[in-house]
Amino acid sequence: MWNGQTPVGSAQYYFSEDFMYIGRVAVITEARGIGIGKKIMNFLEEKALEHAIAEARIEVRLSVPQNIEFYSKLNYKVIEEHEYPQGTDRWYVMKKNLSVQ
After folding, report:
1. I need a labelling partner for 26 at 20 to 30 A (CA). Which of 57, 59, 63, 83 fits?
2. Structural domain containing residue 37
3. How confident is the model at residue 100 (pLDDT cuts 50, 70, 90)?
């Protein structure tokens, strides 16, 4: 996502057979808190629906609780919890049913 000539946010995604995986969502520090992350997520969710994919998933580290809160506010629900092999952190897999808005 751009603000004029300045890149302010980005994300990666791919389609699996049953869902869109969204990852590496990032917004630069000076552009946080003004809705850019939400706009990125809304754009990707619409892209999933255009491809007849009715579920989006994202992985969120437990060490970044503000991200868990962000995705929860966007109606993502925890479906799995995992731990890194080194035991340094854990993460949630969160999903959202896009057909029910």
Report:
1. 83
2. 2-97
3. low
